[in-house]
Design goal:
The protein has 683 residues and is mainly beta. The chain is 6% helix and 54% strand. The chain is built from six helices and 36 strands. The strands form six sheets. It has a 22-stranded antiparallel beta barrel. A five-stranded mixed β-sheet has the order 3-8-9-6-7. Strand 24 and strand 25 form a beta hairpin. The longest helix has 14 residues. It is globular, with a radius of gyration of 24 Å. The N terminus is likely disordered.
């Protein structure tokens, strides 16, 4: 094993074994090595493009109960909390729903997708143990040549915690409002060439509204072997969620009526989901300048939920199982150049049923019976090349290309093409569909000083259609439009500074998307939409008064607009997309009161946004403040707490407007002020 790699592995283990409160320098995301861009450690100053990082120490301070509480600290990211563990995502995009929401963002754990391409889950981040992660990296905009389908608007890579160098055992217990209880435990050590870590989490939540809440369990097992030539990292992950779901509450500004906001309009709604994944990354050092990597993996997910957001309230069951292999060969050339060749393989067997047990509501098209019952076998083959060239002493060029072939073998298990008595459920005949997509990338990094660099980056994101867009489109025959591969082209320019003192990253971007398949606010499917996205993102960290205080600000300004006309849906070119705020911000003032104590005041800003395609209904936005405190009583015992919504603001986590002529304002309510406290003990 090369000396550089040994140092890298030891540093990773040392960083993840650091216990207690994050001081100012540890809390910074800019001056870091990042792994997501190239699937290997790379100084962020050499990145042609952006990668926002949330450190393990930040996760330890926030102690998130929901992914939005930690991911929204990255510029340009807006994850809206639904009920329980549900969420919808925005990364350089509006907050997207349905197949568009599921298929526009790639969710990974240590570089392996949580779900198969074409089988994404719009709430997919509850299927990973982010609460005990070793860090979270978020790429805004299309992914590089290393990542294919779903990395359209961005990707989220949750990094597992590495084994510690010495024996580490920790128990963490916390209590929050509405009978929220969380227990976490970890044990880790390195013995000889073998390191291991076991993370276990269990949560029960009584729910903010009546007849709601959830129970979830997560387990992460990691084993590392460090050899002179061969190194292995094996990861097993398991998640289980049982949730009693509270749907939207309806009525203009209903979130301001506490008696209404704590009610459950449909106590029968639920979501049950489980997943498990197993992977082994094998790295063989062929020489001091070349290595070969193979990562085989297995995946299984299954979910059942009541579709409470539709009048018929059908029950959906879906599951899929995958086997995959990531392979790459890396060669470092003289002069600082690098070549990476690789191919990703994946085979998936999936199935879905949708059955309505309820009688038909007054709307007429939502009728009882089997709406859908189908199987899909999916095959993905994706070769790629990534290159880096040190063309001048301070100028580095990155170029890459990915080709992705997707094949869906679809079998319709229902007897007829449409369900008798309704023209809503179009069920295609059994067939085979194939898609071929190319994703190029070209970037330039110009080193300005030892700690400052500028970059310009072009990249294309593509994805084959989601299987639900093709085979469970829920459209009338008159609306039939075949979903095609979605494509987005992105150009971004930026400058970043790392190191001591002031750190910052400023990025401007423009993206154009075509063949956008979505459901408009009149409940009609649009198979070939066009949109454009323009924005400016700013990330700043500045310590002052001898590092006793620090301020971190992540601010994004954006315009997400339609780039086509559709009069029947009130869509006009230049109109704003639904749930596309013009400004989002997360600003944090940190105070290292003592070497053992850190406090942080967080300001979350959300500007107004439109709720329908005609831009006639809107949510006014909100400003919410949160306080986090952590104190090491001893070297082994830590007390922590957070006060959410300090000023008891009445707001909505998510605002929406019901489709069609009979629609109304709908909200997921933001909770009133509450205190969450806990303690961790290391032994």
């Amino acid at each position: 094993m090369s000396t550089r790699k040994k140092i890298s592995l030891m540093l990773a283990a040392a960083l993840t074994s650091t216990a207690g409160v994050a001081v100012a320098d540890d809390n910074v995301s800019l001056d870091e090595m990042v792994v997501t861009g190239t699937r290997s450690e790379t100084p962020i100053l050499e990145q042609a493009g952006n990668t926002g990082r949330v450190s393990e120490q930040e996760i330890e301070l926030v102690r998130p109960d929901h992914i939005s509480e930690i991911a929204n600290r990255v510029s340009g990211v807006n994850i809206q909390e639904g009920n329980g563990q549900e969420h919808l995502t925005s990364i350089r995009s509006p907050v997207l729903t349905g197949g568009a929401g599921a298929g526009s963002f790639l969710y990974l754990e240590d570089g392996i997708p949580l779900r198969a391409a074409g089988f994404a889950n719009v709430n997919g981040l509850f299927e990973v143990n982010y609460e005990q992660a070793g860090g979270i990296e978020i790429v805004r905009g299309p992914g590089s040549a290393f990542y294919g389908s779903n990395a359209v608007h961005g990707l989220v890579n949750v990094l597992s915690r590495a084994p510690s160098l010495e024996l580490e055992r920790e128990i963490d217990l916390s209590i929050g409002p509405n009978d929220l209880y969380t227990a976490k435990a970890t044990v880790s050590d390195t013995v000889g060439n073998h390191g291991y870590r076991v993370n276990v989490l269990g949560t029960t939540d009584g729910g903010y509204a009546s007849d709601s809440g959830y129970d979830q369990q997560k387990v992460t097992l990691r084993h590392d072997y460090f050899g002179d030539v061969d190194s292995f990292k094996t990861l097993f992950s398991y998640t289980n969620l049982n949730q009693e779901t509270t749907p939207y509450i309806e009525g203009y500004q209903a979130y301001e009526d506490e008696s209404l906001s704590r009610t459950n309009p449909d106590p029968a709604a639920y979501r049950d989901a489980k997943s498990y994944r197993l992977s082994t990354e094998w790295i063989r050092e062929l020489s001091d300048s070349s290595r070969f990597t193979l990562t085989p993996y297995l995946r299984h997910t299954e979910m059942e939920f009541l579709m409470h957001f539709l009048p018929g309230q059908a029950t959906e069951k879906n599951k899929h199982s995958s086997v995959g292999l990531l392979s790459s060969y890396t060669k470092e050339l003289d002069g600082g150049h690098k070549l990476i060749f690789g191919t990703d393989f994946e085979y998936t067997e999936g199935e879905l049923t949708e059955i309505q047990y309820n009688p038909a509501p007054p709307f007429g098209v939502f009728i009882p019976g089997v709406h859908y019952d189908y199987d899909v076998d999916a095959t993905v083959i994706a070769p790629y090349i990534h290159t880096e060239w040190q063309v001048l002493e301070d100028t580095r060029v990155t170029a890459g290309l990915r080709y992705e072939y997707t094949r869906y073998d679809y079998s319709n298990n229902t007897a007829t093409r449409t369900l008798a008595g309704s023209n809503r459920y179009l069920r295609p005949d059994s067939d085979v569909d194939t898609f071929s997509n190319f994703s190029p990338k070209l970037g330039v990094v110009q080193q300005l000083t030892d700690d400052t660099a500028a970059f310009i980056n072009y990249s294309r994101g593509t994805r084959a259609p989601q299987t639900t867009d093709l085979y469970r489109a829920q459209i009338e025959p008159s609306q039939t439009g075949s979903a095609d591969s979605e494509t987005i082209d992105s150009i971004e320019v930026g400058v970043r500074k790392v190191g001591d003192g002031l750190q910052y990253e400023v990025t401007a971007y423009h993206m154009k998307k075509r063949d956008y398949f979505f459901t408009d606010t009149e409940n009609q499917n649009v198979p070939n939409g066009k949109t454009q996205h323009t924005g400016l993102e700013l990330g700043v960290f500045y310590p002052f008064f001898n590092d006793e205080f620090d301020i971190a600000a992540n601010v994004a300004f954006a315009k997400h607009e339609y780039d086509f006309d559709k009069p029947s849906s009130d869509i006009e070119s230049g109109g704003y997309l639904v749930t596309a705020p013009k400004r989002i911000a997360n600003v944090r003032l940190g105070w290292n009161a003592t070497p053992q104590t850190r406090a942080e005041l967080e300001w979350e800003h959300m500007s107004e946004y439109y709720l329908n395609d005609a831009n006639t209904f809107k949510y006014e936005g909100h400003d919410v403040f949160n306080l986090f405190v952590s104190h090491d009583v001893t070297a082994d015992f830590t007390l922590y707490g957070r006060l959410k919504n300090v000023f008891n603001t009445e707001y909505a986590e998510r605002a929406d407007f019901g489709g069609g002529g009979g629609g109304d304002y709908r909200y997921f309510v933001g909770e009133k002020r509450y205190l969450h406290v806990g303690a961790s003990y290391r032994f």
